[in-house]
Protein backbone atom coordinates (compact mmCIF):
# COMPACT_ATOMS: atom_id res chain seq x y z
CA UNK A 1 0.00 0.00 0.00
CA UNK A 2 2.86 2.31 0.63
CA UNK A 3 4.09 1.69 -2.88
CA UNK A 4 0.92 3.11 -4.29
CA UNK A 5 1.38 6.31 -2.27
CA UNK A 6 4.97 6.63 -3.45
CA UNK A 7 3.85 6.43 -7.06
CA UNK A 8 1.22 9.04 -6.41
CA UNK A 9 -1.67 6.60 -6.64
CA UNK A 10 -4.51 6.32 -4.24
CA UNK A 11 -4.47 3.27 -1.98
CA UNK A 12 -6.42 0.23 -3.19
CA UNK A 13 -9.68 -0.35 -1.44
CA UNK A 14 -9.87 -3.88 -0.14
CA UNK A 15 -13.19 -3.59 1.68
CA UNK A 16 -11.75 -4.83 4.88
CA UNK A 17 -9.79 -7.75 3.42
CA UNK A 18 -6.05 -7.59 3.72
CA UNK A 19 -4.13 -10.75 2.94
CA UNK A 20 -0.77 -9.43 1.85
CA UNK A 21 -0.68 -11.92 -1.01
CA UNK A 22 0.10 -10.78 -4.55
CA UNK A 23 -2.55 -12.56 -6.53
CA UNK A 24 -1.20 -11.59 -9.94
CA UNK A 25 2.16 -13.20 -9.26
CA UNK A 26 0.53 -16.28 -7.72
CA UNK A 27 -1.72 -16.80 -10.76
CA UNK A 28 1.27 -16.41 -13.09
CA UNK A 29 3.31 -18.99 -11.15
CA UNK A 30 0.50 -21.56 -11.08
CA UNK A 31 -0.10 -21.08 -14.81
CA UNK A 32 3.59 -21.68 -15.55
CA UNK A 33 3.77 -24.78 -13.34
CA UNK A 34 0.53 -26.34 -14.57
CA UNK A 35 0.41 -28.89 -17.37
CA UNK A 36 -2.01 -28.67 -20.33
CA UNK A 37 -5.16 -30.80 -20.09
CA UNK A 38 -5.04 -34.22 -21.69
CA UNK A 39 -7.02 -34.24 -24.97
CA UNK A 40 -8.50 -37.64 -25.88
CA UNK A 41 -7.42 -39.19 -29.16
CA UNK A 42 -9.75 -38.36 -32.05
CA UNK A 43 -11.90 -41.22 -33.34
CA UNK A 44 -10.41 -43.17 -36.24
CA UNK A 45 -11.43 -42.01 -39.71
CA UNK A 46 -14.35 -43.80 -41.36
CA UNK A 47 -12.02 -45.40 -43.88
CA UNK A 48 -10.28 -47.41 -41.16
CA UNK A 49 -13.46 -48.77 -39.55
CA UNK A 50 -14.23 -52.44 -40.12
CA UNK A 51 -17.72 -51.83 -41.61
CA UNK A 52 -16.48 -49.32 -44.19
CA UNK A 53 -17.78 -49.99 -47.69
CA UNK A 54 -20.38 -52.57 -46.65
CA UNK A 55 -24.07 -52.16 -47.34
CA UNK A 56 -26.07 -51.83 -44.12
CA UNK A 57 -28.23 -54.81 -43.14
CA UNK A 58 -31.51 -52.91 -43.32
CA UNK A 59 -30.79 -51.97 -46.94
CA UNK A 60 -29.91 -55.56 -47.80
CA UNK A 61 -33.28 -56.68 -46.41
CA UNK A 62 -35.15 -54.02 -48.39
CA UNK A 63 -33.37 -54.97 -51.62
CA UNK A 64 -34.08 -58.65 -51.03
CA UNK A 65 -37.79 -57.98 -50.44
CA UNK A 66 -38.03 -55.78 -53.53
CA UNK A 67 -36.37 -58.46 -55.69
CA UNK A 68 -38.78 -61.09 -54.37
CA UNK A 69 -41.77 -58.91 -55.24
CA UNK A 70 -40.43 -58.34 -58.74
CA UNK A 71 -39.87 -62.07 -59.25
CA UNK A 72 -43.39 -62.89 -58.04
CA UNK A 73 -44.95 -60.29 -60.31
CA UNK A 74 -42.97 -61.29 -63.39
CA UNK A 75 -43.25 -65.06 -63.05
CA UNK A 76 -46.49 -66.59 -64.38
CA UNK A 77 -46.45 -69.14 -61.56
CA UNK A 78 -46.49 -66.39 -58.93
CA UNK A 79 -49.68 -65.33 -57.19
CA UNK A 80 -49.68 -61.94 -58.94
CA UNK A 81 -49.73 -63.63 -62.34
CA UNK A 82 -52.63 -65.95 -61.45
CA UNK A 83 -55.03 -63.63 -59.67
CA UNK A 84 -56.25 -60.26 -60.78
CA UNK A 85 -57.31 -57.95 -57.98
CA UNK A 86 -59.59 -55.93 -60.24
CA UNK A 87 -63.07 -57.23 -61.12
CA UNK A 88 -64.02 -57.68 -64.77
CA UNK A 89 -60.47 -57.54 -66.09
CA UNK A 90 -57.88 -59.83 -67.59
CA UNK A 91 -54.17 -59.71 -68.18
CA UNK A 92 -53.14 -58.95 -71.76
CA UNK A 93 -51.14 -61.87 -73.20
CA UNK A 94 -47.63 -61.22 -74.50
CA UNK A 95 -48.29 -62.20 -78.13
CA UNK A 96 -51.48 -60.10 -78.20
CA UNK A 97 -49.58 -57.17 -76.73
CA UNK A 98 -46.83 -57.47 -79.36
CA UNK A 99 -49.43 -57.60 -82.15
CA UNK A 100 -51.09 -54.43 -80.85
CA UNK A 101 -47.76 -52.62 -80.61
CA UNK A 102 -46.82 -53.57 -84.19
CA UNK A 103 -50.25 -52.51 -85.49
CA UNK A 104 -50.01 -49.18 -83.66
CA UNK A 105 -46.53 -48.53 -85.03
CA UNK A 106 -47.73 -49.23 -88.58
CA UNK A 107 -50.68 -46.88 -88.06
CA UNK A 108 -48.31 -44.23 -86.71
CA UNK A 109 -46.04 -44.56 -89.77
CA UNK A 110 -48.99 -44.20 -92.13
CA UNK A 111 -50.34 -41.14 -90.28
CA UNK A 112 -46.86 -39.61 -90.02
CA UNK A 113 -46.35 -40.02 -93.79
CA UNK A 114 -49.63 -38.18 -94.41
CA UNK A 115 -48.64 -35.50 -91.88
CA UNK A 116 -45.25 -34.97 -93.54
CA UNK A 117 -46.88 -34.73 -96.98
CA UNK A 118 -49.33 -32.10 -95.76
CA UNK A 119 -48.41 -28.53 -96.82
CA UNK A 120 -46.59 -26.43 -94.25
CA UNK A 121 -48.54 -23.29 -95.14
CA UNK A 122 -52.10 -23.43 -93.90
CA UNK A 123 -54.60 -21.44 -95.97
CA UNK A 124 -57.99 -22.40 -94.54
CA UNK A 125 -59.53 -23.37 -91.22
CA UNK A 126 -60.28 -26.88 -92.47
CA UNK A 127 -56.58 -27.40 -93.27
CA UNK A 128 -55.73 -26.17 -89.79
CA UNK A 129 -58.23 -28.56 -88.14
CA UNK A 130 -57.03 -31.48 -90.28
CA UNK A 131 -53.38 -30.81 -89.34
CA UNK A 132 -54.26 -30.52 -85.62
CA UNK A 133 -56.24 -33.77 -85.87
CA UNK A 134 -53.19 -35.51 -87.34
CA UNK A 135 -50.96 -34.16 -84.55
CA UNK A 136 -53.43 -35.34 -81.88
CA UNK A 137 -53.65 -38.76 -83.55
CA UNK A 138 -49.86 -39.13 -83.59
CA UNK A 139 -49.63 -38.12 -79.92
CA UNK A 140 -52.41 -40.56 -78.94
CA UNK A 141 -50.74 -43.44 -80.79
CA UNK A 142 -47.44 -42.67 -79.03
CA UNK A 143 -49.20 -42.73 -75.64
CA UNK A 144 -50.87 -46.04 -76.49
CA UNK A 145 -47.56 -47.63 -77.54
CA UNK A 146 -45.96 -46.38 -74.34
CA UNK A 147 -48.83 -47.84 -72.29
CA UNK A 148 -48.55 -51.22 -74.02
CA UNK A 149 -44.76 -51.26 -73.60
CA UNK A 150 -45.11 -51.86 -69.87
CA UNK A 151 -44.62 -55.31 -68.41
CA UNK A 152 -48.17 -56.10 -67.30
CA UNK A 153 -51.28 -54.60 -68.91
CA UNK A 154 -54.80 -55.22 -67.57
CA UNK A 155 -57.77 -55.02 -69.96
CA UNK A 156 -61.33 -54.27 -68.86
CA UNK A 157 -63.94 -56.82 -69.93
CA UNK A 158 -66.86 -54.40 -69.39
CA UNK A 159 -68.41 -52.88 -72.51
CA UNK A 160 -67.86 -49.13 -72.81
CA UNK A 161 -70.72 -46.92 -71.75
CA UNK A 162 -72.68 -44.89 -74.26
CA UNK A 163 -73.14 -41.60 -72.41
CA UNK A 164 -70.20 -39.15 -72.56
CA UNK A 165 -70.36 -38.25 -68.85
CA UNK A 166 -70.24 -41.88 -67.75
CA UNK A 167 -67.43 -42.54 -70.21
CA UNK A 168 -65.35 -39.72 -68.70
CA UNK A 169 -65.91 -41.05 -65.18
CA UNK A 170 -64.88 -44.53 -66.29
CA UNK A 171 -61.78 -43.14 -67.96
CA UNK A 172 -60.73 -41.66 -64.64
CA UNK A 173 -61.15 -45.04 -62.94
CA UNK A 174 -59.97 -47.05 -65.91
CA UNK A 175 -59.10 -50.60 -65.06
CA UNK A 176 -57.08 -51.16 -68.20
CA UNK A 177 -54.03 -49.50 -66.77
CA UNK A 178 -50.53 -50.79 -66.78
CA UNK A 179 -48.88 -52.05 -63.61
CA UNK A 180 -45.18 -51.66 -63.15
Word description of this protein:
It is built from seven helices and three strands. The protein has helices at residues 2-6, 23-33, 57-74, 79-82, 94-117, 125-148, 164-172; strands at residues 89-91, 152-156, 178-179. Helix content is 53%, strand content 6%. It has one domain.
**Spatial order of strands in the largest sheet:** 1-2-3
What structural class do you assign from the helix and strand content? mainly alpha
Mean pLDDT: 79
Categorize the overall geometry: elongated
Number of domains: 1
Distance between the termini: 93 Å
Mind summarizing the main beta sheet?
3 strands, antiparallel
Radius of gyration: 42 Å
Contiguous uncertain segments of 5+ residues:
172-180
Give the number of DSSP strands.
Answer: 3
Keywords: Cell projection, Cytoplasm, Cytoskeleton
Biased composition (Pro residues): 37-46
Main location: other
Region (Disordered): 1-55, 158-180
Annotate the secondary structure layout.
Blueprint: H1 2-6, H2 23-33, H3 57-74, H4 79-82, E1 89-91, H5 94-117, H6 125-148, E2 152-156, H7 164-172, E3 178-179
Antiparallel strand pairs: 1-2, 2-3
Helix pairs in contact: 5-6
Looking at this protein, list some descriptive labels.
53% helix, cell projection, mainly alpha, 180 residues, disordered C terminus
In short:
By secondary structure, this protein is mostly helical.
Amino acid sequence: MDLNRANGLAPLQTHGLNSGKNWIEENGKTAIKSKPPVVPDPPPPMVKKKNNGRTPRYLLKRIKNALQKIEEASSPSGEAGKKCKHPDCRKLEEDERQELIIALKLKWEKLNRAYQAYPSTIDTESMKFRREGMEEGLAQIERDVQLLSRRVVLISERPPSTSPTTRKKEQRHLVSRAIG
